[in-house]
Amino acid sequence: MCDLADADVATEETALKVEALTLIGGVDISFIKGNDTLACACLVVLSYPSLQTVYAECTMVHISEPYIAGFLAFREVSHLVDMVNVLKTTRPDLVPQVIMVDGNGLLHHQGFGLASHLSVLISIPTVGVGKTLLMVDGLSKDVITLAERIPLGGGGEMLELRGNSGTLWGMGVCMNAKVTSPIYVSVGSGISLLSAVALVRRCGQFRVPEPVRQADLRSRHYLRMNGYA
DNA sequence: GCGACAG
DNA sequence: ATCTTGTCGC
């Protein structure tokens, strides 16, 4: 028996071993209440496992595509790709081995959400982290209550997100016993679901894993600091 | 037709 | 996504 929390970060040959994991990235885009075309994109890099922010960049971006559930990638990826490319040329020493995205990966109508798009475009593994459940393949709110719940060390648990077809789209994850509402973890690419869940659970005690949380906090802080909110 | 709908 | 006050708990 092995504790899930100690599992490798991937099961493929190109396995990203935990021992090799030193940097985790996080991305998020925050919007302004009355503005639909101006937003702040943020990319952060945290040391692992200490979770200290070693890089944080915020940039105002022009949003040209509307928000349509299922098409989030068309609205946000280009800006996220830009930020990663800046990091690659500016601080190649801080390019993370994996990036957590505020959006789904496999948990998507076409099995290819924002996290999947980003991963492919930047050639870096990603983990999709959704805060609300995207109903796909028969998934619904009650699936959360009927789902098979697997207890995790630390008091948390993960809930299988299985659709009518039997497909395992992702996992509902509660960071610890105190967190009631789960986040929805799904594979972007370059990492297995169980490894993604194990990794997410090692990213703090808040409902949202630290990399995504930091990107969220910083992008919002940036907007306020520059007189938008 | 109706409901659901990541951020 | 964003708008909001107080409130409960470590």
Automatic annotation (TrEMBL):
One function term, GO molecular function aspect: single-stranded RNA binding
Keywords: Cytoplasm, Endonuclease, Hydrolase, Nuclease
Superkingdom assignment: Eukaryota
UniProt GO cellular component terms: cytoplasm; nucleolus
Any single GO BP term: DNA repair
Keyword Thylakoid: no
Keyword Hydrolase in record: yes
InterPro entries: Endonuclease-V (IPR007581)
Pfam family, one: Endonuclease_5
Subcellular location: Cytoplasm
Protein name as it appears in the record: Endonuclease V
